Amino acid sequence: MSRGKYWNEAFETAPRAEIEAKQLADLKVIARHAYANAPYYKRSFDAAGVKPEDIGSLKDLERFPFIDKKTQRDSQGVGSFLGELAAVPEEEVIFVSTSSGSTGVPTMSPFTRRDFDEWQDVESRLFWQAGMRPQDRYIHALNFSLYVGGPDVIGAQNLGALCIWGGTLPSERLIFILKEYKPTAIWTSPSYAWYLGDTAKKTGVDPKRDFNIKRIFVAGEMGGSIPATRKAIEELWGAKLYDFYGLSDIFGACAAMCEEHDGLHIAEDHILVETVDLDTGEILPPGERGELVYTTLRKHARPLIRFRTGDIGRFVTEKCACGRTLGRIYVDGRKDDMFIVSAVNVYPSDIEFVVRGLAGVTGEYLIRITEENFTAHYEVTIEKSHDNNEADESVAQRASAALKARIGVKPQRVVVLPDGSLERSTHKAKRVIDER
Question: pLDDT (tens digit, 9 = 90+) per residue, 210-220?
């Protein structure tokens, strides 16, 4: 099949009314499936006084109850191995991944054969959207051990690219492969993309000169959507960076950037997006910042209906300059990571934006949150570049002023350390220490 700019032009450029009509049809089917086959949904819908037959429009979904991570943890293993949210017998499940458990007990995400195949078609579409083509040579440098992003390499294979299943190779081995095999694309985390490029340079290998990477796909952290971080990684590698976004609760990458780098197009044929007020749960109009809520429209093994993701961001439906009409998400961070200082909501992504844009620092940072007299404070530790002769106090003052200008509240202090003092992450970095 010959493809042009789009993997599935008919759907990716469809009018909003057509997209929403398809969503409504699939929503009715999945709601009936969940109610009939998942004990939890039968019980929760009945308790809320709603039934699948009540859905006559997308707005009617607002009458249905939310679920969240706690719902998953509490229902997992209850009544069966797959738990009360599962809507198919175990015999129909061909794959499970698990969450990292970073915010609690790891939760399973099961897939039927159809779920899995449709998921990988989405991956192919997102790779194509980000510029991958059959002539590309791609190395998948993501964890394959239970991680939902591991199988996404199949989406690249289905697209026709030559795929190297790298996994979590030691950095020196991965640098060797990048030099010898000359892949044109790589997928990893923003932290590791920076670490790997920086490590290569320190060993005398120039990513721009000695590698052949044209595209870097990143996920798992905020950095790919932070302009300063994206620019720093692109300059280090001499390649374009594209942010991807996924949840273990649904499937690998659910959204990704296009060539415009303006938000991430979400797979609206699989996910219905709502945005709600963080405190009241009230539905917010498109474009307003709140908690992103997803309903899976086609995942049969374990449907998620009105799943509160804990991700803070906004959702827009205006047509993108790339020609796609699929909605875009802009994620600011995790609800769990946000903290309040002097009545100001502080997001680690805003701190990263500032640090990555400062001259004379390495871009590495650590946030420490403390409490004194019932008042929260934050401090930021950064590193001064090895070739920066500026006094530490001057660097700290510049950083503090930039943080105050961006966030609205300055840190209690900025600690400046020499280059190499902070621990480097080989994959997903932990940058927030909450000592309250």
Answer: 999 999 999 98
Q: Residues 6 or more apart from 389 whose CB is under 8 A from it?
A: none
| Amino acid symbol at 271 | I
pTM (2 decimals)? 0.85
DSSP labels, 314-340:
EEE-SPPTTS--S-EEEEEEETTT-EE
Q: Whole-angstrom Cα distance, residue 26 to residue 47?
A: 23
| pLDDT tens, position by position, 270-320 | 999 999 998 898 999 999 999 999 999 999 999 999 999 999 999 999 999
Residues of 166-204 as b/e, b for ≥16 C-beta within 10 angstroms? bbbbebeebbebbeeeebbbbbbbbbbbbbbbbbbeeee
Which domains can be identified in the chain, with CATH numbers?
A: 1-335 (3.40.50.12780), 339-434 (3.30.300.30)
Q: What is the DSSP string of 52-74?
A: GGG-SSGGGGGGSPPB-HHHHHH
Nearest-CA neighbor of 305 among 30, 108, 69, 82? 30
Which residues does 30 contact at the CB level (< 8 Å), separation at least 6?
A: 295, 296, 297, 298, 299, 300, 303, 305
Q: What percent of the chain has pLDDT over 90?
A: 72
What letter does residue 181 receive in the DSSP assignment? T
Name residues whose C-beta falls within 8 Å of residue 277's C-beta, 6 or more positions apart in sequence: 284, 290, 291
